[in-house]
Amino acid sequence: MVAPIDQSELPLDNLEFFIDPSRCIGCQACVAACGECDTHRGIPMIHLDYVDRSTSVQTAPVVCMHCENPTCAMVCPADAIKQDDNGVVLSAAHSRCIGCSNCTLACPFGVPKQQIEMQLMMKCDLCYDRSSVGKKPMCAAVCPSQALHYGSRTKVEAHRGEVPCNKFQFGDQTVKTKVNMMTAHGLDTIPFDVADFMPQGNLAAFGRERIGSPDAAEDTVWEDLPA
User: What is the 3-state secondary structure (H, E, C) of 92-137?
Assistant: First the structure.
């Protein structure tokens, strides 16, 4: 058993964000808290999506994954999207954003959203005013099931049955992120294939089967991490 780590003594670069969709209970606490972050101007930056609303009430929280080489910043013609020294990708600068939606279309995770009334792209910035000084982002601070967690990787690996992964495969492109997704053992990279989101009948016509990823829920341990 690894001894608990005092988070207050950890350097900021040792604090990481972890998402475990299998723990999400759809309570909307993260959405309500996100809008209260001082940098968000009352607008929630987290999205709570239904996995398959026609057949299930299962939800999954979606935050910015803070890519190591953010596509949103690369395609911005106005150089409005910046990344800080800790790898946090910030919302577009109001003085530069031209509302072109390039970032919205380019993001492989579908995270950036255009706030039409403000003519500005805004998205999750890990509650920059909090995380930049070692505090938990608002969503992770209120999540009752710890589907969203902010802390040390050592503690997560010691107390969770799943393993954190921050590499994602989109076709031939590998995207490395600051945010971790909890997944099953034996998976170094999480693959995203459009076939996984197609009706099974449509796949048969192409002679394909849905591959998907190992189910993290099978490895889930319902044990709260030490404070």
Answer: CCCCCCCCCCHHHHHCCCCCCEEEHHHCEEECCCCCHHHHCCCCCC
For the full predicted model, state whether its pTM sits above 0.85: no
- The CA distance from 140 to 151, in Å, is 10
The fold of the 12-212 domain, in CATH, is: Alpha-Beta Plaits (3.30.70)
Q: Where are the domains of the chain?
A: 12-212
Cβ burial, residue 90 (10 Å; 0-12/13-18/19+) = buried
Residue 114 backbone phi and psi in degrees, to 5: -85, 125
Tens of pLDDT along the chain (227 residues) come to: 334 434 444 455 578 999 999 899 999 999 999 988 888 888 899 989 888 888 888 899 999 999 999 999 999 999 999 999 889 999 899 899 998 999 999 999 989 888 877 788 889 999 988 988 889 999 999 999 999 999 999 999 988 888 999 999 987 889 999 999 999 888 888 887 655 555 555 555 555 554 544 455 455 555 666 65
- Secondary-structure percent of the chain, ordered helix, strand, coil, rounded to 5: 25, 20, 50
Q: 73-79: long-range contacts (C-beta < 8 A, 24 or more apart)?
A: 73/103, 74/106, 75/102, 75/103, 75/105, 75/106, 76/102, 76/103, 77/102
